[in-house]
Amino acid sequence: MARREGSRWVDPAPLEIARPRLPWWTLLPGWFKLVLLPVALVWVTVWLVAKLVRLCWYYPVLATLTVAALLLDWWAGHGLVGSVASIVIMSLFVWWWVSAESYARWCRFLRSETRRLSIYAWEWRTVMRLANLTGTAKGREYRPKLKRVRAEGWRDKVRVSMIKGQAPEQWAERSSGLAHSFHATACRVRVIKPGRIELDLIHSDPLKRVLALPQLSGDESAVDLKRIVIGRTETGKPWRIRLLGNQILVVGVQGAGKGSVLWSAVWALAPLIKSGTVRLYGIDPKGGMELGQCPEIFHQVVFDNGPDAVELLEELAAEVRERAGQYRGIRRWWSRESGQPFTLLIVDELADVIAYQTDKKLKERAQAAIQTITSQGRAPGFGVLALVQDPRKEIVPFRNLFTTRIAMRLDEATQVDMVLGDGVRERGAEAHEISELTPGVAWAKEDGKREPVRARAFYASDSDLAELRGFVAGFTAEVVPFPGPTGGAGGAAA
């Protein structure tokens, strides 16, 4: 209402305020409040006890230290408490300085509780609101609940109970912001069970050091083709890959360390290669720059991508079909008791064989043979370990036939999805961000397992390869000659 001319009347509406609403229980009669008072006191007591139990559940070490400090203060006074606290803190510091490994192992619970209290619980509400991970319904705010925190030195594992209607993908989209908010270098999202996720907040890289190959062992029984060890995961566990009933594709740019995966697998198979239980075939289109370093371990190896390589592939494809026919009605799976060797084909640069080959007929024959081996070779005991730099569909049109895919350092984020599959990069598999200073580091994804694994393969030096050649001495290998610079034979038979 506007002010009238010649009148002193002023619209009082701007001065009005909302009438305060009193809680419903204030309208109850006094005698009824008196009756409800004991119930309210019991409810408040139960609520306080529940809060205390919750604090003791999440902070058992800190709660124990606090109670001990209060009892000591009541018995001896503030001076003794301060002295004891100073001695404990200095002792912990000296322990960490002398042996950080044992300190991290024995004091991990204290570290976990301290980080939960000082970093996550302290800033949880603010971060959730600013990251738009809260929800509102009927005027009430719903916030994800912070659960267990486990500090492992290089990462913090933070359990979270999501609110209703929330999806893990929403957290994955905000992983970068969460990492910066909680003072971490990276954040990965893993699904634990419906409604529950775990955030891996990374602080340092446990795979920055080169891993030396383990000592060669002559014990054949120690080699399991279903889980050979080729390195270490970032959690410190052995990195195992499956060769029996599996086809493996390793993708990475030049210098990413694909050779580390190759030679680590061969190193683990050395006892079986020596006994003949495993038979290796190799194709190295780069003239033997990789496989030519240790040709004695191969039953047959070709150092180009020409007719010899295609004929080798077709021979293996024919052997796959022949062995499958022999197993028909007798066995469904290869085993050592069959008396036939497990055959592993290693192709150092797959693209040179099936994509960059200028002869169209040879290229088609090579593609058909490799597809036969990868699609039909699982049961009869044939495996493929293929290495390639370019993962595009036009280069490797049958990527889906490789049941285990390993992504080493890549150029682009889209290549991670090409190798590991859609959605894996959002869960933390940032293979395109692997440092050039850590060759051999990779992300591995196996069919049937939702979460990828970050690991580093062992590094094989020239002396290691010389030791490998000596270990399998006496194993006869046929090396197909490859053309030399003048067009003549530049290879040799081993």
How many domains in all? 3
CATH superfamily of the largest domain: P-loop containing nucleotide triphosphate hydrolases
The count of β-strands is 17
Order of helices and strands: HHHHHEEEEHHEEEEEHEEHEHHEEHEEHE
User: Structural class of the helix and strand makeup?
Assistant: alpha/beta
Main sheet attributes: strand count, strand direction, barrel closure: 11 strands, mixed
Share of residues in helices: 25-40%
Quickly give the CATH architecture of the largest domain.
3-Layer(aba) Sandwich
Strand content: 15-25%
Overall mean pLDDT:
87
Strand order of the largest sheet: 8-7-16-15-14-9-13-12-10-11-17
Q: Low-confidence runs (pLDDT<50, min 5 residues)?
A: 485-494
With helices defined by DSSP (H or I, 4 residues minimum), what is the helix count? 13
